[in-house]
Amino acid sequence: MSTAPPSQGPPGTNGAGAPAPMPTPPPQSPHTLVVRGNLQRDLFRLGVVPCAAVALALTGWFTHNRLQTLEAAFDAEGQAVARQVAAMSDLSLYAGDLPALQNVANAALRGGQVTRVEISNSAGVYVTAGPKTPSLAQLRMFTSPVTLREASRASAFAPAGSTAAGDTPIGLVQTFRDTTAYTRERSRSLFAGIGIALVALVAAWASVRHMARTVARPLRRVSRTVAALESGHFEVRCDVVEGGTRGTHELAVLAHDIDRLAERLQRNRQVSEERVREATAVALQRMAEAEQAALSRARFLAAASHDLRQPLHAMGLFIDGLLPGASPTQRPAVLRLQESTEFMGVLLDDLLEISRLDAQVLTPAIAKVPLAALFDQLDAQHAATAVEARVRLRWSDRGLAVRTDAAMLRRIVGNLVTNALRHAPEGGTVLVAARRSPAGVRIEVRDNGVGIAPIHQGRIFEEFYQVANTERDRRRGFGLGLAICARIAALLGTRITVRSALQAGSTFSFTLPEARLADITPPEPPPLAVAPLAGLRCLVVDDDPAILDGSRALLEQWGCQVECVTNGPEAIARLGTGDLHYDAVLCDLQLAGEGDGVDVIDAAKRLQPDALAVLVSGATGPEVLQRLRHGGVMLLTKPVAPAKLRALLTTRRHVHIA
Question: Are 417 and 430 spatial neighbours (Cβ–Cβ below 8 Å)?
């Protein structure tokens, strides 16, 4: 076997040495085979355990036989001495010859096989030889009865048929043997058996270990190669070389198969990478085309919005100027014309809002907003619509407050309430409720209308997408409200979710951070009544004669003193004379000639800082909006509602008078 390649790491790692991802084990079925441990340990068990069992069994058997032999020999010698002493002391014990008994006992001791001899009978004869050991733990006793035999029985020449005088024992012989040497020999036999067993186990372990390593190393190499292939390193190979010539080894065949698999995977990976590069190039090209199309669309919408806002702004000014003096027969037509203008203004305002959100020029002013005051404002705004639609409009703030932008929150909730009132059935209910949740305060707008089918719920936040307005009735909206709400919600760091089902109503909800109501300062008292605009000096700068005429007529109708200029240099010249002081400067962005409206506004801020400088424009492109935001320019988007312009000028008039 060759060594591992340099790029190959340890088991469980990829080629760079980093931990390889652990595969998820498949679910086990009733027939799944569960494998635990590893192959080398299993081979150890397979080889060592049988060898150990055989070695221990044989060693135990031989050791047991050896110990039994020692035990039998020890007992046989002790019992033989006891019988010999009994045979030699029968006549002396019968005759009561104590010296002879003592000589027999001493003669038994001199043989060295026993350490103590005792001869006794029931008549009181008692002869001992040898030391008396206090503890008998190291001594083993052997006994033999003493029987009296006839002379003919004791003689070797006794005639056949002679009988013993009696078989009744006349005494007892007890011999004692020291077991120290026997115990020592027994211990040597045990240690010898254990040593033989250990030698057998060590030999078996060494042999099995060698065989296990011979099998486990190629398998470990194959496992590391498979792990590297799983991590994407298809250049790694097993490099297992067969060493013998007696046939093909199964592990070598497995390694060669893995190598062939790795080569195929490497080729497939090269083909896949080439295809991915081609697909990526095509995707990048199409993405660039899509971005260019989006930029073209944005520029087109911005240009179209500006071109539409210019005449629409002039139209609104003329209509608002004609309405007070219209005759009874002309007034309905003028009102219908004003309604159409307002619809067009709403659509352009929504497009402007989309442009502002896409251009990321709106920055939320985060503050602590009490929901009670916000709901009161929205209720005053939508109560008349709810009464007209015969829908109950209920509010539940529960005394909560949130941290958010009040105007943006009012826009989201107001739009959701408008949609709910539009789709709620007659006699139905629209509920706007706030409640605490683990993430903050959850605001919900619920209705019991026809609901939204699941197929439409993923698209209702797209621009111009309306579920039940295929005839495009402008009184039912343009399909931009929810798209604007979704973008504003993302700007506030939240997301609008919808739960709905057919004939079960809809619930739109989003979550905002909670604020402590006690930390919110009460609102300032409302300002004093607005003052009239009589005598307010206004400078109007626009290159469209229709807008100049309409602005002049409307402002003069309000009592203002108006001067109209068609280009930027003339307007800057009038601002810099020092003799003319203006209270308000209303300037268009795109002017004829050199410069644009931003230059006029900058000059007005520099030359007459007390004047109210307002840029009135129909441009809604992201570049323009970002430029105005960075310059801190006040912007009114065309078409400007006369009421909004009057409110702005009235505020300026109030400050001027103060």
Answer: yes
